[in-house]
Amino acid sequence: MTAQIGYRDRAALPRLGAAAPKGPVVLDTNVFVNALVGRGGAELKALLSNLPLSLVSGATIAELNWVGGRLDPAHPETEHVVAKYEAILAQIPPTKILVPNAAQWAEAGLLAGRAARAVAGRARSIRTAFDRIELINDAVTAIVATSAGATIVTQDSDFDLFMQLEPKLHVLFYG
Amino acid sequence: MDPTPVAGRRKSRPPTRHARPALLPLQMAAATGLTAGAKTKHLNAKVTPALFEAAAKRAGSESPAVVIEAALAALATQDDLGPWLAEQWGALANVDPALLAEIGPELADDRSNRLS
After folding, report:
1. pTM to 2 decimal places
2. Are A117 and A3 in contact (CB under 8 A)?
3. CB distance A149–B24 less than 8 Å?
4. Inter-axis angle of helices A78-90 and A58-70, to 10 degrees?
5. What residues contact residue A120 under an 8 Å CB cut-off, 6+ apart?
6. How close B98 gets to chain A, by Cα (Å)?
């Protein structure tokens, strides 16, 4: 059954601007990263400007914090960049963070594995440990967002695979 | 005038699949202590039936108390993260690209996961 699943053409995906979010909005990590550098398009900026309630996956919290540990402290601009990410994290209260329980961690692992199997052997596939970790983090976001009845806003095409495997998942793509 | 008796409208019905999003703000309100303690604040308000029915559908209940509590929770748990992030748009646009590339694939040359 998963043999039919794969990365679809972007024209086939639900797009931010063309469709409205169903329920609350979960902002994926790339939304924060792109907004800070001014990428993402007018639709994303318009959504953010008028968004009354934002949710964030625990996986995104980890990825945003990763910046503080990853950047070279000796670089003259690191302090400025890390301060901006710390400012983002300060804007996210704990009640807006969707944290997976034990069963959801298991669901996420299974979903990521199914997605990887679906694209195995193709031009774009999950090959490295980095790919696996990235996919599991994304699957965590997909699982907790589905449980919350929320729509994920992202530019990450891995969520296209998850949508095909989990019909209850709502995603809007930008960029 | 709405012909439906008040008592009839108050009859609860099973939650629909739309109920979950409406309940999420209640969960967040509870997490911040907003729903703890005695309910001593009395509210008396008139609204249009259409507004009430639309809110009741989202709340999964026709009980005015349930609907009002859900509506207040939705309002009370709103946040400014989205608008704040929009205000930060491009704040790091002039940072050294090599440094930004260390943050993640979104900002590196290898953007295999991006839609493009």
Report:
1. 0.83
2. no
3. yes
4. 160
5. A126
6. 10
* Sequence-ordered list of residues with C-beta below 8 angstroms from that of B35, at least 6 positions apart, any chain: B26, B29, B69, B73
Nearest to A55 by CA among A80, A28, A73: A28
User: Within 10 Å of residue B101's Cβ, how many Cβ atoms?
Assistant: 14
Hey, CA dihedral for A66, A71, A72, A76, is it positive or negative? negative
CA distance A157 to chain B (A): 6
Cross-chain Cβ contact B92/A81 below 8 Å:
yes
* Calculated CA dihedral for residues B9, B14, B16, B19, nearest 10 degrees: 80
B99: amino acid identity, one letter: L
**C-beta atoms of A50 and B82 within 8 A:** yes
* pLDDT tens readout for residues A126-156: 778 888 889 999 999 999 999 999 999 999 9
How far, in Å, CA of B53 to CA of B94, rounded? 50
DSSP letter, residue B37 = S
CATH fold group of domain A23-173:
Rossmann fold (3.40.50)
Among candidates A30, A35, A47 on the partner chain, residue whose Cβ is nearest the Cβ of B88: A35
Dist. CA B88–CA A138, nearest whole Å: 24
Which of A48, A66, A125 should one mutate to test binding to chain B, selecting the residue with the greatest count of B CBs within 10 A? A48
ipTM score assigned to the predicted complex: 0.91
Residue reference for tokens 């009640």: A95
Interface size, chain A vs chain B, as Cβ–Cβ contacts under 8 Å: 138
- Partner-chain residue, chosen from A71, A94, A155, that has the shortest CB–CB distance to B114: A155
Closest residue in chain B to residue A159, using alpha carbons only? B113
Listed in sequence order, the DSSP H helices in chain B are 6-10, 19-31, 49-59, 64-76, 81-87, 97-101
